[in-house]
Recover the amino acids of this structure.
């Protein structure tokens, strides 16, 4: 059994990790770390876990085989500085500290997009888990990037659920504001752009055109719906492109191409990403949906763990969708 | 024109007052008071008012004919102590400071339930506006209380929208928590019980049976749905009771008895209260809906103002419902 | 008083018209037509109107000064064929029958976008009310079109509330499907494109570039949030453009430019359209919000009526927003 | 492996069964029956199953070891009449046909409330799965009934999600109506009352007092929140009662007593039922939450199947909650 510790144990992504790992047949929980809540039952904070675990929060890492960092962006590096994590202990960072700046001492963080870097992840001892928005956009574009087919501005609107904003209540996550509301934030300037650009280049699109991206706040809790289009040269037919996408993701157990239009809830509470592809006016249009807390965060992190430890990539991740 | 000032100008009830008063033909805004936001445009906080007013927040009361206190419970008394409000200036308190403890110096606050105290309010210079929950429950029971017909335990479940919890973001108003969720709070012990009990007695029910009330948090923003029942002696027939309710509220321009079952959104964004009455198993069952920010707060406050200044009771309050 | 009839009286837009017109000081209701519900109280269908009107549905038009057609797309022409509407009776069509094909016998329908065609509307006896989506997009672009500044592909994502899909329950308006869900429909091919294109050309943009538009279904009831961008030559500075927009809409009482980012609920249950303008990466980005049932349908229809009868353009349309 | 067929394969409860059974290690799907959709992929209707199954709908039962009937209330009896189900094939009915009227030919349906009838279910070849509302209310009261402690009127308000109303779109499940709305239906007369009453008597409460129950429609998709109270004689202390409840459900792997107040989403997308117990004014107050489609329908049905086939009661039912 793999011994797992989780740093930043009270937040949303840690809660999702716990919900997955408690039913994962290959792991035991070594430590759920929260200095502020040390000694309290984990189910006292993640209230839905009542009856599923008696574990309490701890103030130290224990002796894990792998530690997940769920600390909030910018805090992982400090954690590694302050805690003496043995070199043999693998690290999976759910923050953005090592996505674009992968070196920390002897550790070199592999970017944990399984669909691109599966083989490197298998060998990695440190993984930087991709962002939720970036996962949805990268998975929409990865096959085109692999063909070097991204040649003109890439247009993206992507709308996220409120859990992406984390647990701390703020004005834009106030129910009275958010319910039945829609807004835009950080238009054209979202912090996930660098990791998307770097990844699409790494996938094979040597000269990447600009990504024009409008992130939006949706009035739902879970999920990201990304709508992406770029000019298409029509050198491949529609059928060829769709078949190519299906082939590209054939070895990826969680990414599927739908022949029918998709809606967000088809993936909520699963580790899946669904794609749908259409062609209009000389553009290729890809819609992409995933659950921001699962395939966009904790689910993908466990998928990375499975790869890093030589387990079946899907272990513990065949989740019943909530659908409704 | 009546000169109006509003203390506590940045909160939800102040915003609603502004939305009503800006279209009210009988008033001018003298001052919207917020020491923290003094000098800033009111439409900078209440963002929907863009294009409707250029007024800015002020740090003083000005010289109003009436001042609305929107300060949060427990702060009105302090405000009156700290500010020298002339005796000629009328006061309408939306907090709970004077509902059960009506005396402040020379001022004696009339309980501002128009449907019961219309005549006293007309003559009042100080009014304590009822609570939102209590308004919905009192209006359901007032006609029975007037007949001294409340003789056995009164059973209430009442579910409120998130705006009742105010503007400050907290864990129970976090969208990620509240969306699609239901919970109970303060069961059997809500702080509105004393004003309800006092009022039903004042209405004529000399010995009031206990009120067993479960308040609930709903996953909507506006409105209260109250479901109320108590044993019924059947000395009056169903038709007699329904006709009596209609007669009782005949002179009240905002309370109506529906022959059909009602739903919450039939009153949202209006100053109306709708009631529906049924009889089963020896009980009389009354459902009651109102908008907590309007008939349950700012709308009722303006209705009180209209009465206090001899205006038509409905002036400025014939609002288009949002319905959907 | 203007005598008003409404054809198709049981639908959503007719309901909204009624909610506005019952408080409009310049009109009386002549007839609310529904052959299927003739004789029934209007408040029996539009349940929120309980206590506000005793009018019943009628099976004939009566003798109105103006008739609003709320019949559903494609049915207005048939209605005019089947009913003998006198030439002196003005017609305002909320369907799409006459937007792109304006001639019906002697009648020549003016396109009812007040902000562009105010003077023609004043003289018109027949008006084709714009679509909801198109209103939000046209108002975002009208000032640029007037300068002939639309020179490159126009990129639009616009997300609509469920009331845009009408009253009949279908799978995509089922609460179990729609709640917390997002989907795309008719990408690049929405039927409002022709009226948008025709209007922007009429406004002054002689050669219009293609509009690449992804309509989306949102999980809210009211409103449209449109996010629109196109390349910008930077010949005018940001400040110049923003000031020009403000100047352009100075005479339009319901369109406002916000210096701050906007959210949908700032306009819900009002007749306003708010715009916000930003500049990034060589693009001008305009967000636009309006209530699809008001500024996008019934509110704009009343605004047109006001113009056609020489009333103040805002009469009956200063509505209290619901905000929350 | 147990061969499973599902009759009525296109509805909500069948979809949930599929989501559970596809990950259940002890079963194979024999047939998902839908005469209208025969030959079509199951994932064409239950769209979220894309990538998880290639099975198609069938027009016949195949040769299953157990058949789940998901046919809608009143249709199960007809199905058994029209189809020749061998005596050796077990039947689990999710409709209400056999809950109060358990005999069909040689079959005698055991009422499938695992917490009460676990041993009979283990031996049963036919089970009538309880209703969703009744499950939430029975689990709240079962321990008291076992002590014969229900002696005075039982007061219940229980609010359900929209999925309880099934897949067919109707006016009360229209998003434009349901969103942000609350309503009451069938007050005091819901059709689940007989099965609740019969069960509480069977549990040991020989003379059952009346249940006064107001069912409500909530604006969420999944779950039931039941708030239940009845007079309490105080012969047992609060601690004794709470400990007794915990002891009572000790052998039930999905029912838990929370020391803290509970909210609906703590159980959504799980097979759990959470209870919270309080004491006020001489009443015992129990809140109870479960997912209407899981512990209230398909989850409980699989739990019954597990018992009937001698499997671990929790097999396939340790589901990751959606929580948000």
């Amino acid at each position: 059994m793999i011994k797992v510790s989780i740093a930043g144990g009270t937040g949303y992504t840690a809660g999702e990790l716990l919900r997955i790992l408690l039913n994962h047949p290959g792991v035991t929980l070594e430590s759920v770390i929260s200095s502020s809540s040390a000694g309290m039952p984990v189910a006292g904070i993640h209230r839905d876990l009542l009856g599923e675990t008696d574990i309490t929060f701890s103030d130290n890492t224990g002796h894990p085989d792998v530690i997940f960092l769920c600390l909030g962006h910018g805090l992982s590096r400090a954690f590694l500085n302050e805690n003496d994590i043995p070199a043999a202990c693998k690290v999976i960072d759910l923050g953005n500290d090592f996505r674009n700046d992968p070196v920390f001492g002897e550790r070199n963080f592999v970017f944990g997009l399984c669909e691109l870097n599966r083989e490197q992840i298998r060998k990695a001892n440190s993984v930087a888990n991709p962002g939720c928005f970036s996962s949805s956009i990268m998975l929409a574009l990865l096959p085109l990037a692999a063909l070097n087919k991204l040649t003109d501005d890439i247009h993206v609107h992507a709308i996220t659920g409120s859990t992406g904003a984390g647990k701390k209540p703020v004005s834009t996550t106030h129910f009275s504001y958010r319910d039945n509301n829609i807004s835009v934030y950080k238009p054209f300037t979202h912090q996930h752009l660098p990791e998307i650009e770097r990844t699409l280049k790494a996938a094979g699109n040597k000269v990447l055109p600009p990504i024009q991206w409008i992130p939006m706040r949706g009035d739902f809790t879970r999920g990201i719906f990304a709508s992406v289009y770029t000019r298409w040269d029509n050198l491949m037919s529609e059928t060829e492109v769709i078949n190519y996408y299906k082939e590209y993701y054939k070895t990826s157990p969680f990414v599927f191409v739908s022949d029918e239009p998709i809606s967000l809830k088809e993936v909520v509470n699963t580790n899946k990403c669904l794609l749908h592809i259409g062609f209009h006016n000389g553009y290729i249009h890809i819609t992409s949906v995933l659950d921001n807390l699962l395939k966009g965060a904790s689910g993908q992190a466990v998928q990375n763990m499975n790869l890093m430890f030589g387990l079946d990539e899907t272990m513990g991740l065949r989740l019943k969708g909530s659908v409704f």
